[in-house]
Amino acid sequence: MEGASFAGNFLLDEAGDRIAVARPAPNNGDMYPIAPNSVWVGDYIFEDVNGDGKITEQDRKIIGNPNPDFTFGLNNTLTYKDFELSFFLTGSVGNDVYNVLRQWHTDPLGWGNKMKEVRNYARIGLIDPDGSDDDISNVVVTNAETASVQRVSAAGMSNNDNNRISSRFVENGSYLRMKSLSLAWNLPKSWLKKIDLDWVQVYANVQNLFTITSYSGYDPEVGAMAQDVLRQGLDSGRYPSQRIYNVGLKVRF
User: Fold this and answer.
1) Alpha carbons 52 and 198: distance in angstroms, whole number
2) Could you tell me the CA-to-CA distances from 243 to 51, 68, 240 in Å, in that order?
3) pLDDT digits (tens, 9 = 90+) for 24-53
């Protein structure tokens, strides 16, 4: 296979064949070593875009697009006798959101609060309990099928920079939202004649009733960060749209 030129950076596939894997390298170009406190089993494997066998700034590429293919809205009022049902649906299709908040709070080695997915970090076990935990051929991710984030290093560090900016945090930002839903009742005219009123309406309204989306953050409708049009689609914890309830009475004399 190709990969013999990758200076021993290999994984083994199910058939036992070597798969070349590039390692991160600092500015001096020397790759970080394979070691428990450096680059190890349970770390993420990043794409070697330029094929030089190293993970560097040269492997960066444009990922995601905050601009939707289209946005839409639907507004209508349905009437039946003295009742009115009004609704306003909005949505966006085809845009990506970069979940900055998830990037900050899914690093098991970082400070501060964590998201619940961190509980299922990659757990490292020994193939041979009597063997060395420094021997990469003797360690394995025991929950590889279900692990949601990288391993925890005993030294509290990893040179792999697992939570670096990557496609891991780019999510589909498409959504459908019931922006407004109202139900109104116009009191019968025969009732109003007795109290000399022309029109009376009793209504109830709820805003942001529900949102259908696959986005894992608080709110897919993030817009631009800090009102900067060049930083659209970045979710660093924008306060989500609140669900608001209103009841009221409208009277015309």
Assistant:
1) 80
2) 49, 24, 9
3) 998 777 889 889 989 999 999 999 999 888
Of residues 41, 55, 51, 64, the one with CA closest to residue 168: 64
Query: Strand, helix or coil at 68?
Result: coil
221-246 CB burial, b ≥16 within 10 A, e <16: bbeebeeeeeebbbbeebeeeeeeee
- Residues 38 and 155: beta-carbon distance below 8 Å: no
Short-list 86, 83, 87, 85, CA closest to 201: 83
Q: Are strands 244-252 and 199-207 parallel, antiparallel or unpaired?
A: antiparallel
Question: CA–CA separation, 149 vs 116, rounded Å?
Answer: 11
Mapped onto helix, strand or coil, the DSSP state of residue 103 is helix
- Distance separating alpha carbons of residues 85 and 82, to the nearest angstrom: 10
Render 136-192 in DSSP notation, one character per residue. GGGEEETTTTT--B----TTS--TT-TTSSSGGGEEE--EEEEEEEEEEEEPPHHHH
Amino acid at 165: I
CA 103 to chain centre: 9
SS3 label, residue 105: helix
Q: Give the tokens for residue 75.
A: 């507004």
Asked if residues 205 and 245 have their Cβ atoms less than 8 Å apart, the reply is yes
Chain segment 83-107, per-residue pLDDT in tens = 999 999 999 999 999 999 999 999 9
Give the span between the Cα atoms of 206 and 232, in whole angstroms: 28
C-beta separation of 75 from 88 below 8 A:
yes
